[in-house]
Amino acid sequence: MTAADGTGTEPPHADRDQDRARRAVEAVWRIESPRLIAGLARLVHDIGIAEELAQDALVAALEQWPRDGVPRNPGAWLMTTAKRRGIDLIRRNETFARKLQELGHELEVTQGAAVFGEPADAAGDGGDIEDDLLRLVFVACHPVLSREARLALTLRLLGGLTTDEVARAFLVAEPTVAQRIVRAKRTLAKEKVPFEVPQGAELAVRLASVLEVVYLIFNEGYSATAGDDWMRPGLCEDALRLARVLQGLMPAEPEVHGLAALLEVQASRSAARTRDGAPVTLLDQDRRRWDQLLIHRGFAALARADTAARARGAAPGPYALQAAIAACHAQAVRAEDTDWPRIAGLYRALAATAPSPVVELNRAVAVGMAEGPAAGLVLADALAAGGALEGYHLLPSVRGDLLARLGRTAEAREEFVRAAGLTRNGAERALLLRRAADPGGS
């Protein structure tokens, strides 16, 4: 029945149009929110206020787009609307009088065409929007924040995730994530963290924090630390997107390309990492299912990392070395074709560049494959004796594999059981218990 029938109800297609408009709002928000918040933060110098203004624009879009249609330049529409809200806020606070003039001038430039007419530069900033994004990256990943806060804030501001989505991604209660984000914004304001890209020696320190955050987001998606799922692909996709954005923003930084290369090649294996919902180890994966497009992208990024490093006369950094290791696996058509001596050498270089017990554990695996399980077990046993990896489930897992290959099945079984008791991931626990039941793999 339609309104013409005297019922006063809307035709079915109106509901469909509204649903489409709402979905469009959600899609545009996920894509545009980082640029929107970045542009606003540069003007108001407060991430909390910038996000509130952006949210106000989102609410306006949810109200108007289903009724009026989606504008031709949604990002510019959102920015224009947010700036209007900003002007209203500034007018209520005399201390922001100077910023009112700045906002008013920019609004005059973008108003009109940006709303439903010809597309305008989002925020009228032209090329500055990329600089705004880069500033936002460095603020969200500032070392003054805890690691957990950096992860949550980065996914919130740059990944476009809701607080609930961040909470579900890391299996944390939503109020906990909300508190982390609120505290992070307060800390940035209290510490007066400038909305700028650091320069000189500080850039290297801060960039390391940025890359670490993206790396941790990817790792949590690639091998979930807790829960029942072996992977959380959404987090991998978010990290990949952030890594690619960083490549565009910082094309001269070798480690930016190194990280992107590592994530591209690692992500290429995603489809082969499970079978019927159960984890599949690297050596047992069907390599025909590896995504060749992502592998090629990874190789291209690795080449860019090498070129950028050579331009600086620098040796490969930790992410580039890890990407080179991943590339070795990607180049092997069959698991038995893997160049393990080269991988062991790359891990040796990585241990010299970024020493850590986890790197040494991975080197033990590579040495065990290149020189035999006895040689790998010597390294793994040294790590166990040192105690640095106590409670880390992959140490007994690696020792179990090496012992099994040496025919010491009883000891291997004990190690796999120990590893299963340490992991918090249900799928990984099941895999380890299966290995414990049949250490020899018969």
From TrEMBL:
PANTHER family: BLL0085 PROTEIN, BLL6612 PROTEIN-RELATED
Record organism: Actinacidiphila cocklensis
Annotated family: Belongs to the sigma-70 factor family. ECF subfamily.
Compositional bias of kind Basic and acidic residues: 12-21
Location of the RNA polymerase sigma factor 70 region 4 type domain: 139-188
UniProt GO MF annotations: DNA binding; sigma factor activity
Domain RNA polymerase sigma-70 region residues, every copy: 34-93
The keyword Transcription regulation appears for this protein: yes
Protein name from the UniProt record: RNA polymerase sigma-70 factor, ECF subfamily
A biological-process GO annotation: DNA-templated transcription initiation
